[in-house]
C-alpha cells in the first residue's frame, strides 16, 4: 500500500463561515469523535487569525483527515501555514465562501500544481 493511500472512513475537515459549514454539515460531512473533537470549525466575527491557525494546525495533526477544506478568505489569513504544506495528505482545498468569490491566482496549492505541469509558465491564472 502506498504511503499516501487514502483509507476508508477518513474525514474531510472544514474551516468556513456559518453558511458554508451548515451546507456541508447538511450534506453529511459532520463528525464529532470520542474525544469530542469536531471536523469543522465555524468562523465568525469574533474569530481571530490565531484561532483559525490553531484549528488548522490541529486538523493537520489528525490522522483521521484526508482533506481540509478552507474558505479562501480565511486561507488568506493563514497563507504562511498553507504554503509550507508539502505532504499530499491531508490535501488542502481552498473553496469560495458566500462573502468572497474564489480567486485561483491566490490558491497556493493550485499554483504549485500548475508549476509541476508547466514549470516554464510564470503566469498566474
Protein architecture, described:
The chain is α/β, with parallel strands linked by helices and 125 residues long. Helices cover 33% and strands 18% of the residues. The protein has 5 helices and 4 strands. Strands 2-1-3-4 form a 4-stranded parallel beta sheet. Helix 1 links the parallel strand 1 and strand 2. The longest helix is centred in the middle third of the chain and has 13 residues. The radius of gyration is 15 Å and the shape is globular. It starts with 10 loop residues before the first strand and ends in an 8-residue tail after the last helix. The N terminus is likely disordered. Pfam families: ATP-synt_F. Keywords: Hydrogen ion transport, Ion transport, Transport. InterPro entries: ATPase_V1-cplx_f_g_su (IPR008218), ATPase_V1-cplx_fsu_euk (IPR005772), ATPase_V1_fsu_sf (IPR036906).
Task: Compute the CA-based radius of gyration.
Answer: 15 Å
Low-confidence stretches: 1-6
Q: Provide the helix percentage.
A: 25-40%
Class by SSE composition? alpha/beta
Helix-strand pattern:
EHEHEHHEH
User: Widest sheet: strand order?
Assistant: 2-1-3-4
Number of helices: 5
Shape assignment: globular
Query: Using DSSP, what is the number of strands?
Result: 4
Mean pLDDT rating: 84
Quote the beta fraction.
15-25%
CA(first)-CA(last) distance: 35 Å
Quick one: biggest sheet? 4 strands, parallel
Family: Belongs to the V-ATPase F subunit family.
Keywords: Hydrogen ion transport, Ion transport, Transport
Protein name: V-type proton ATPase subunit F
InterPro entries: ATPase_V1-cplx_f_g_su, ATPase_V1-cplx_fsu_euk, ATPase_V1_fsu_sf
